[in-house]
Amino acid sequence: MPDTAHRVEVLHGVNLDMLGRRDPALYGTLTLPDLQQRIEGYAAELGGLRLGFFQSNFEGELVQRLHRLRGQADGIVINAGAWSHYAWALRDALEIAACPAVEVHLSDVKAREPWRRVSIFDGLCLASVSGHGAEGYRVALARLRDALDGAGAGAADAPAPPAEERGER
Q1: Catalytic residue among 6, 27, 42, 137
Q2: Structure confidence by residue, pLDDT tens digits, 81-133
């Protein structure tokens, strides 16, 4: 039987390799390997997804990875960390990748400093999920899988986040 799973690349940006050492009130206590294992579990529960992971603290490396994903991935889950708020080259690279994408943040960026409330990915991603910790990745994967399956944002495998996290700002 052919593999019909959607290929989804999960991209982590600057400082995400420091999970477990960062403020647990904002980012939880999971390390990046723990988080990736949790994300793999979410994908297995949801079904129909085959994941790849990439993390870099160098913006150019993340840009290059996005460039290489065109034709190699069906969808993208991206947590660019602080780059989400000012690294416009990442937005351009995500657009070049030409894949549906969902932005994720572990912390509630809308309740933090004003500069974190703006995302360079606004209007480009299917949705933005923040403030749900690791569970936000389950929401992101479900939204992405539903979009790839043609079901759109209305499918109900995951709880719907508030309107501002659905890109309805």
Answers
A1: 27
A2: 999 999 999 999 999 999 999 999 998 988 888 778 889 999 999 999 999 99
Can you say whether residue 133 is alpha, beta or left, with left for phi > 0 and alpha for psi between -120 and 50 degrees?
left
Number of Cβ atoms within 10 Å of the Cβ of 10: 25
Active-site residue, selected from the candidate residues 6, 12, 105, 132: 105
| Structural domain contains residue 23 | yes
Q: CATH no. for residue 100?
A: 3.40.50.9100
How far, in Å, CA of 62 to CA of 49, rounded?
A: 22
Is the predicted pLDDT of residue 55 greater than 70, yes or no?
A: yes
pTM: predicted TM-score of the whole model, two decimal places? 0.86
In a domain, 1, yes or no: no
Active site residue 12: no
Residue with token string 């050492």: 21
Helix orientation angle between 88-97 and 59-69, rounded to the nearest 10 degrees: 10
Q: 57 is in which domain, residue-wise?
A: 6-166
* 105 assigned to active site: yes
Domain count, the chain: 1
Residues 6+ apart with CB under 8 A from 36: 10, 53
